[in-house]
C-alpha cells in the first residue's frame, strides 16, 4: 500500500503544470509559457522555446541564450548577462539589482514598482521575459 501511495504522489508531483499566462502591470496578457517550454505572445504566436536543459531558442529554434542551474543567464555567445538569485532578486551582468520576482509571481523593477505578473512561471523564465529580452516579440 505504501508503494502505491508513493507512486501516486510521485506521479502527481511530476506532472507538468498547464500553460501559465504572463501579464503586464494592468493584468493584460502579454504572453504565455506552455508546459513544454514554448513561449507565445499575446496573439498565441510562438516567439521562443525554453528547453529542459536551459537552452533558450527563438521561434525558429535558433539558440539565443542559456539558463544555468545556478540562475545565471547567458546570451547566445555564452556571455553572462544576468543572474536570478534564490530570493528572486534579478541582477544584471555587473551584479546591479534590476528587479525582483516575488514568490507569488509579481514582477517588480529595481525600485519595487510592479511591472507584471507571472504566477507559477519559473523565476528564470520570468526574468528572461521581463528583464533580459532574449525572446523579443
Q: List low-pLDDT spans.
A: 1-15
Q: Would you list the SSEs in sequence order as H and E?
A: HEEEEEEEEEEEEH
Oligomer: single chain
Overall geometric form? globular
Distance between the termini: 50 Å
Radius of gyration based on Cα positions = 16 Å
For the sheet with most strands, the description reads:
12 strands, antiparallel, barrel
Number of discrete helical segments? 2
Within the largest sheet, what's the order of strands?
1-2-3-4-5-6-7-8-9-10-11-12
Percentage of β-strand residues: 35-45%
Q: What is the count of β-strands? A: 12
Question: Which structural class do the helices and strands define?
Answer: alpha+beta
Quote the average pLDDT. Answer: 88
What does this structure look like?
By secondary structure, the chain is α+β, with helices and mostly antiparallel strands. The protein has helices spanning 2-14, 123-132; strands at residues 20-24, 29-33, 38-41, 46-50, 55-58, 63-67, 72-75, 80-84, 89-92, 97-101, 106-109, 114-117. A 12-stranded antiparallel β-barrel has the order 1-2-3-4-5-6-7-8-9-10-11-12.
